Amino acid sequence: MTGEAREAPLCYKPRVRAILLALLLIVSGCGGFGPSAPQAPPSAVLARLKVGDAPTLLAASPDGRRVYAASNGSISFIDAATNTVLQTVKDAPNSTGIAVAPNGAKAYVTHLFSIDLTVIDTATDSLDKPVLMFLQRLRGGFGFLAVAPDNQTIYVANKANEAFGIIDLTGGPGSLLMPTVFPVDVAISPDGRTVYGAGCKQICTPGFVQLYDVPSQKFTQEIEVQGSPYRIVVSPNGANAYVANLSGPSISFIDLATQTVTATVAVPPQPTGLRISPDGATLYVASQTAGVLSVVDVAGTTVRAQLPVYQARDVAVSPDGRRVYVSSNDTVLVLDATQL
After folding, report:
1. Strand ranges inside 122-259, DSSP E
2. Nearest to residue 227, comparing CAs of 243, 242, 248?
3. Is the whole model's pTM more than 0.70, yes or no?
């Protein structure tokens, strides 16, 4: 097995995944499938849409018209108004991240073994010319990504190369930096001045969030969280960050002003999807092993509801907060957020 294969998302290799998950449960001391909560009603599910092969990663357009589902080897374009798949186009295999630019003009998809960044033209629902990223020690390895508020810069995690990539969409050379925390996921402050990279050092217990100051182009503080961070989101007002940790498993609540963890909320095993509602009041957590979508009340730091979703992988939320999208094996579920 090469170094690249170590970076495959946990659902690519079933036997390896089973072994890793068993070890994870032993290490984290999980006796079951995590905390229980009231179950959301079946009527919360508005539609089940067929997409490509797992894993499927999700992103919603800022205008609420589209949801993009990047599967293994394909991208599906979902019409949010009618809850239908408009079309599915071929793409490189092993998608690892997807993000839509804040202005909604483009969406971008990364892949496990590729240095080409897939570009989606959202106006025409078609693929545009790809962006060539960086050559490095291990080919590919690019994962979750975030587009800056200026729509001209992408920040991308590359744990395989222990690197943090900065892609200049205006045609500049970009940068591949070496932080002290090897990022798995990245998030950006609303003003675009700070990028938060969640990941590990040489070992993953504990995990860390490292700050990158955009104006000075320097990595600064590190915030300790629980082990094996996998996803990170920043609240719409920029005051807080939330990290999904595979070890625990849990969600770390971070006060960004004091750079401290203020709460830790237990969730079911393998939280691979994390999104926050537009009003900042609710976190949606997809736990793949448990097959559960957890709805976390931010103010109360509690799981207020759960919905069984087979192999729940990723989550997206509509800009108005009324719809939640969850990827499940080869399906995307459309949920009524008012019933969750």
Report:
1. 126-132, 145-147, 153-158, 163-168, 175-177, 182-188, 194-200, 207-213, 218-225, 229-234, 240-245, 250-255
2. 248
3. yes
Between CA 283 and CA 317 the distance in angstroms is 10
CA dist., res. 70 & res. 83, Å (int): 17
Could you give the number of structural domains in the chain? 1
Domain holding 52, by residue range, is 4-339
Torsion angle of the four alpha carbons 241, 301, 67, 163, in this order, in degrees rounded to the nearest 10: 30
Q: Tell me the residue length of the chain.
A: 340
Cα–Cα distance list, 125 to 6, 78, 79, 301 (Å): 33, 10, 11, 39
CB 167 within 8 A of CB 11: no
Q: Find where tokens 């949920």 sit.
A: 335
Encode pLDDT of 54-75 as tens digits. Answer: 999 999 999 999 999 999 999 9
User: Vertex 8, ends 88 and 292: CA angle to 5°?
Assistant: 70
Cβ pair 322, 277 in contact under 8 A: no
pLDDT per residue over 261-280, tens digit each?
999 999 999 999 999 999 99
Residue in this structure with the two tokens 């237990």, named with its chain if needed: 266
For the chain, residues with pLDDT lower than 70 are: 1-34, 135-139
CATH of the domain at 50: 2.130.10.10
What is the helix (H) or strand (E) element at residue 58, kind and residue range?
strand 57-60
What angle (nearest 5°) sits at the alpha carbon of residue 55, between those of residues 54 and 61? 110
The number of angstroms, rounded, from the C-alpha of 114 to the middle of its chain's C-alpha atoms is 19
∠ CA 330-271-61, nearest 5°, is 60
* Secondary structure in 3-state letters for 103-149: CCCEEEEEECCCCEEEEEECCCCEEEEEEECCCCCCCCCCCCEEECC
Measure the CA angle with vertex 234, ends 110 and 100; round to 5°.
Answer: 35
**Per-residue confidence (pLDDT) for residue 136, from 0 to 100:** 59
